[in-house]
């Protein structure tokens, strides 16, 4: 059987051994037991899209039902847990959490999310647990090639239109942050630690401990001097904050669908958790910088005045009445977490024959020069 392979926005290679024909038949059988009796569900238009997601398999399909002689169509998206024997990006994967957090955000905030239709925990249906959402139309800022490289709707937009996009994206993030442990039970967001029980008296400390354990897990076979130094720096300089609220985790415009320049849906909740608001804002700032740095390295202008630290801070304060603190630290934290992810991504590429293992493990971190500059204090001066 062929093993399809896809490289996602973050360079993540995903694999699947599932036949689409077999998958469609299995979904039809499953839907016959989920939907009302005698509606005779048919699954058509099944496809695997280009994805900006992290590691799950995404399937698009249409369900046609018949009731009283009348036909109805439901356009759906299924996300299937990754096959753990295919060297996933993260040590565990919790689709139930993703389904529940999307439903909570949809019910409790103005942030737009896809309709949550069904969650199926039984792996026997399609080979792994999966969730099904309603499909939302919209356009996504491209990752391959990055939107900062030009020749796409983001760079073709006027400065005023990009300002609308930025404002809408930050409005959605601010809405997500309106959910706090004081108002909602967020215990289902407590992540499974990779190696040992989480340590820390604050949400940020526990978040950092999870990512530090993830670093240990990723680099177990070949330690990384660079990533070790990054996480030592993060622990030594961690802000003293007790802020805790729902964190999207992968907060960037590449994980949003846009209708024009307004957010139509917030996608990809693999990294959701409980953390200070700045965690998402730092990720938003840095993930744009990541693409901007790539553009500049290729001699392209990119979008240097988009999603800047100053603009994000100002807009978020206006939207929420709360001025973010220590945003450079959180953006550096984002870059260093992204460094661990990129190390894992490259390890996967080596295992799948898509890359050659370098002699120095730190060469598997694409933006290692950026991390060095953050450690020596020169990066933010350079991009300011």
What does this structure look like?
- This protein is an alpha+beta fold.
- The chain has two domains: 5-134, Phosphorylase Kinase, domain 1 (2-Layer Sandwich); 147-383, Aminoglycoside 3'-phosphotransferase, Chain: A, domain 2.
- 40% of the residues lie in helices and 15% in strands.
- The protein contains eleven helices and eleven strands.
- The protein has helices spanning 20-34, 95-108, 153-156, 159-176, 203-218, 225-237, 277-297, 309-320, 327-351, 368-376, 379-383, and strands at residues 5-7, 13-15, 42-47, 57-67, 70-80, 116-120, 130-134, 245-247, 256-259, 262-266, 273-275.
- The protein has a five-stranded antiparallel sheet with strand order 3-4-5-7-6, with helices on both faces. The chain has a two-stranded antiparallel ribbon with strand order 1-2.
- Helix 4 (159-176) packs across helix 8 (309-320).
- The longest helix has 25 residues, at 327-351.
- It is globular.
- The model is unreliable at 1-16 (pLDDT under 50).
Lay out the secondary structure:
Layout: E1 5-7, E2 13-15, H1 20-34, E3 42-47, E4 57-67, E5 70-80, H2 95-108, E6 116-120, E7 130-134, H3 153-156, H4 159-176, H5 203-218, H6 225-237, E8 245-247, E9 256-259, E10 262-266, E11 273-275, H7 277-297, H8 309-320, H9 327-351, H10 368-376, H11 379-383
Antiparallel strand pairs: 1-2, 3-4, 4-5, 5-7, 6-7, 8-11, 9-10
Helix pairs in contact: 4-8, 5-9, 6-9, 6-10, 7-9, 9-10
């Amino acid at each position: 059987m062929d093993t399809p392979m896809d490289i996602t926005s973050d360079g993540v290679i995903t694999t699947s051994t599932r036949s689409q024909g077999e998958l469609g038949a299995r979904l039809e059988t499953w839907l016959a037991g989920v939907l009302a009796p005698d509606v005779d569900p048919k699954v058509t238009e099944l496809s695997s899209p280009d994805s900006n997601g992290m590691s799950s398999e995404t399937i698009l399909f249409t369900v046609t039902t018949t009731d009283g002689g009348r036909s109805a169509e439901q356009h759906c998206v299924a996300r299937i847990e990754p096959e753990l024997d295919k060297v996933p990006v993260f040590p565990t994967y919790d689709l139930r959490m993703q389904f529940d957090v999307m439903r909570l955000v949809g019910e409790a905030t103005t942030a737009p999310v896809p309709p949550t239709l069904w969650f199926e925990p039984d792996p026997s249906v399609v080979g792994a647990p999966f969730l099904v959402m309603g499909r939302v139309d919209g356009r996504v800022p491209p990752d391959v090639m990055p939107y900062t490289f030009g020749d796409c709707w983001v760079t073709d937009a006027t400065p005023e239109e990009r300002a609308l996009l930025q404002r809408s994206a930050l409005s959605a993030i601010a809405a997500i942050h309106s959910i706090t442990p004081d108002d909602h039970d967020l215990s289902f967001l407590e992540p499974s630690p990779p190696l040992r029980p989480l340590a820390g008296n604050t949400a940020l400390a526990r978040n950092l401990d999870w990512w530090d354990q993830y670093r240990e897990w990723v680099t177990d076979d070949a330690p990384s001097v660079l990533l070790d130094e990054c996480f030592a720096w993060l622990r030594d300089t961690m802000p003293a904050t007790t802020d805790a609220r729902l964190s999207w985790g992968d907060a960037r415009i590449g994980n949003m669908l846009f209708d024009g320049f307004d957010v139509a849906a917030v996608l990809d909740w693999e990294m959701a958790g409980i953390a200070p608001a700045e965690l998402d804002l730092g990720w938003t700032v840095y993930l744009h910088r990541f693409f901007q740095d790539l553009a500049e390295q290729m001699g392209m202008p990119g979008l240097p005045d988009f999603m800047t630290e100053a603009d994000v801070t100002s807009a978020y304060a206006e939207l929420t009445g709360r001025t973010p603190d220590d945003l450079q630290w959180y953006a550096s934290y984002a870059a260093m977490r992204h460094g661990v992810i990129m190390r894992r991504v490259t390890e996967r590429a080596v295992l799948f024959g898509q890359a050659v293992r370098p002699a120095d493990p730190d060469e598997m971190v694409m933006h290692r020069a950026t991390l060095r500059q953050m450690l020596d204090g020169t990066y933010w001066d350079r991009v300011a």
